Task: inverse folding
């Protein structure tokens, strides 16, 4: 019998293989065109392995989204990750906004295709609609915490009377997957160009002068 650590590592690799297969199928075929059977076949595992590991096709997509946003399988909240701590820790407001844009780019380069699948399927699937709204609320929570820090660093005054709540709304729009998808996926911008534009837009919208 294999040692427990070996079994755990084998299970982790199998789980990742199934997620990788699901990512390819969901982005190529969409929600309706992807089946558990197809995921199992692409990952070279039994159908029951997919069901035993995740429970349902929706659960596969949810975990795929979570891992795409995080970049790994570790259960660490966004605000506890190093890039977010760097955003909060930098003393300069403009530097903070540049780091927010860089962090959003890193997340969206991984997660934008999966978010697009969830968003497209949300109109016809109540549970996926709830997943999309949950993701939006989570993104807003992160942006609100960043905006509260920004207000403090800017001496309590943002441009055009913005407070933390409205600054979070601006960041949610500028750094959201909808805007990223429109410019990068739809209009062919490079992620680097999008990041530069997003950082500049946030500075112009939120910082005095």
Result:
């Amino acid at each position: 019998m294999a040692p427990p650590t070996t079994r755990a590592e084998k299970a982790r690799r199998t789980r990742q293989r199934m997620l990788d297969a699901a990512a390819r199928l969901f982005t190529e075929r969409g929600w309706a065109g992807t089946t558990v059977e197809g995921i199992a076949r692409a990952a070279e595992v039994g159908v029951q392995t997919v069901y035993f590991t995740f429970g349902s096709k929706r659960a596969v997509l949810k975990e795929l989204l979570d891992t795409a946003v995080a970049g790994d399988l570790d259960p660490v909240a966004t605000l506890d990750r190093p890039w977010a701590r760097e955003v909060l820790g930098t003393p300069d407001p403009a530097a903070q906004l540049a780091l927010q844009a860089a962090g959003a780019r890193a997340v969206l380069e991984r997660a934008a295709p999966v978010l697009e699948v969830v968003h497209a399927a949300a109109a016809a699937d109540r549970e996926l609609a709830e997943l999309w709204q949950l993701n939006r609320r989570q993104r807003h929570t992160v942006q609100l915490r960043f905006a509260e820090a920004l207000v403090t660093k800017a001496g309590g005054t943002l441009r055009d009377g913005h407070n933390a709540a409205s600054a979070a709304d601006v960041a949610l729009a500028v750094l959201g997957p909808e805007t990223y998808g429109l410019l990068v996926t739809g209009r062919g911008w490079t992620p680097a160009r999008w990041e530069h534009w997003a950082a500049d837009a946030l500075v112009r919208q939120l910082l005095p002068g």
